[in-house]
């Protein structure tokens, strides 16, 4: 298995996974979506809410705020030793919001005051609710580590996808260089140089087969296939964790799950170790 | 109020509404503003393009159900 990174920054990653298979690529993709933990507000105590949005709507909006997560400082609530309903400092952190409007004001995610300075909203400018003069919103919120499989607010990625590596072949013996395939490609993958069709931007190909359909020959001179062992991944973080950390964490979780599975199989005695 | 995340992909879009609104109101082309702000997918773009901010209209009536009266209900 080989990984070649094409682009990598805080929020986006594009890489090629080669000498692998669909099962692994899909397991990695799904692990990033549903198993990598991140922080989100989970429980809200509302003391006063005279805004025009009701308590549930405000709680839902609070939950959806992506929070900068310190994965090493917290443990997921269901794995914490405290076993208490409200949690302990190891598995949750408190945030307080208290805004009383003197004029028409917007309450932003930045108005939330977190107990732990390491945990904070990804952006301070997310509007939560608008208050008219005299209205007040006072609440206490608890943020916890959770997983995407439980609720989408804990999903650390907004995009985690792969596509098959395209393989475009042009039969130079039959191709007459009419350029119909070049015209047909919606992604501008092909180029016509000196009467010959050339693959210029292979990674942009989406395997749509428009070029094959456009070829006027009885037997198309161009063929497009997707590779079964090479994948182009695209991952985008919501901002709660750096994208490189999400990928590494997913690989670790996957490894742990596989070894757990192996142990269970061995323990069952069905397969000889 | 603008939804906090894109309904389809889950990317954060709530914090981009105010800038988007301000720039579009000042006469800029919405498509250019979205490109400029790095909102590339059409699921996220429609979140901002199709949003109608209604809360201000509701708030105009808020004086009729102000804090004191609401507490007495």
Folded structure, characterized:
The complex is a heterodimer of chains A (273) and B (73). Chain A is 22% helix and 35% strand. Chain A contains 5 helices and 12 strands. In chain A, the strands form 4 sheets. Chain A has a 4-stranded antiparallel β-sheet with strand order 1-2-12-9. In chain A, strands 3-8-4-6 form a 4-stranded antiparallel β-sheet. In chain A, helix 1 (22-34) packs across helix 5 (243-268). Chain A is flat, with a radius of gyration of 26 Å. The two termini of chain A are 25 Å apart. The mean pLDDT of chain A is 93. Chain B is an all-alpha fold and 73 residues long. Chain B has one domain (14-72): Orthogonal Bundle (Arc Repressor Mutant, subunit A). Chain B is 48% helix and 0% strand. Chain B is flat and about 40 Å long. Chains A and B meet through strand 7 and strand 9 of A and helix 4 and helix 5 of B.
